[in-house]
Predict the 3D structure of the following.
Amino acid sequence: DFFAAVSRDGGNLFMVGDVKQSIYRFRQAMPEIFLGRRESLPEFDGSAYPAKVTLGGNFRSRPGITGAVNFFFRRLMSTGAGELDYTQDEYLVPEADYPTAAGPDAELHLLSISKDNKVDGEAAYIARLVKGMVESGAQVCTKAGTRPARYSDFCVLMRSPKNKAAVYIDTFAKFLVPASSDLTGGFFEARQTVFMLSLMRIIDNPTQDIPLLSVMFSPVFGFTPDDLARLRLEDKSASLYRCAMLAAEKGDEKCADFLARLAAMRRLSLTMAAGSLVRRLIDLTGFMAIAGAMGHSERRKANLYLLISLADRYEQAGHIGTAGFIRQMDRLAEENASLPEASEHSGTSNAVSVMSIHKSKGLEFPVCILADCASDFNRRDLSEDVAVNPVLGIGLVRKDTEKFARFHTVFNDACGLDNHRRSMSEEMRILYVAMTRAREKFIAVISGENPGAETAALCAGLGSKTPLNPFAVRKMKNFGQWLLAAAVSHPGASALRALAGLGESAEVPDASPLAIVIAAVPKLPEEAAQDAPQAAPDAM
């Protein structure tokens, strides 16, 4: 009503957007509002308003990328599975000027791998893939012409990189491939942060056993499990701090030295502000040097500098005291505050970017690799006790307190099913955003224990009709299944059809090239070194 009032009843209202890239339903975004407005308007005839104008030109990607996007989404996206039909009006029209590519711009890599090794194996495969492209002199285009690819030209995208991005960065390092990532929440799990906050906790209150154990086990003080077991024998019912005091009184020099250093730090905390105290503790413990001697030293040191910065900000806000700073850090951790771990690579450094698809929105990279495609979608919408739907309302389960049982009601199921449909439409738009980040090459890595059998089971009875049955599409569990179900009918996917035991009758016409790569997990460098034949010793 407000917008209608200030825009001459909507006649002077300008709206622009791409519904296919609306990926913030969790922030209450409602793409159906934009869709409804768009469908209510006629095509622009050159003079009359209000009207709709389709802006289909793509000035980012190679024709092979836009062609692949059009192929996959005309197969997958429909009103029933995506909230709109991917018709020719929705097609991306390539407008960017690129030289002819040497091979397909879009690739699907099928990786045979066990479930237990999925994350590590995919990371190793992608690391070797990136390293091979850089070392082979793969070319990327710039405004000044072409140049050899650098690591910063690559981006690894995941639906949910939390707890996985760190594995990728560590695995990449084993292949000598630099990588960086903003790990949401990673700061509080970093070893440097855990040690420093634990040290400040026992400075404030040394009777806390868990922080005290963390500090004593650290490289700074070097206590071993045997040392701690002997301490506990001093008094099994007392705190660990009390046990250390008893051991020191009996002549344990290691405990006596530890308690003396801790007492000196506690005295400093009485007179120093939080920022100054953190700096002083890092100096006294030599922890900056210790962090510098460990793997990913720059990132570890950056975490310490970030902690100093947070302590300075706490101090500048007028707060004082170690206890207050610790409580503030605990509160941020409990609230899952978006406090990323410091990166050892700046945004301009030569490193592979590992990020979530949501964070990549609005960005672009010469080469995008979509990883973790086999991780299943969240299907929680189908089992909520309280299902809230923007159209249907609220659906509740029925609870029988006498029988201690709960029953889904028809209305709860209806709300849950509609929420799930909306959620799957959102996931499809997320996949669209991922594919359209690439300028010159898009690679999807799909892992499974038996890719051939899984593809055959997935495509059984699916047919080659375009678009695919929306009910079947919504039943699929992950990005990988969507990509395989669509790709199996591509003219360039004969290897995939052979793997799945399908005939050429499943093929549908398309002019955009697509490469299917069937691969195995590579060995890590240290494993390869162990397997290498050893030179025979020289004869005496």
In short: The first strand starts at residue 57 and ends at 58. The two ends are 96 Å apart (CA to CA). The chain is about 45% helix and 15% strand. Residues 536-540 have pLDDT under 50 and may be disordered.
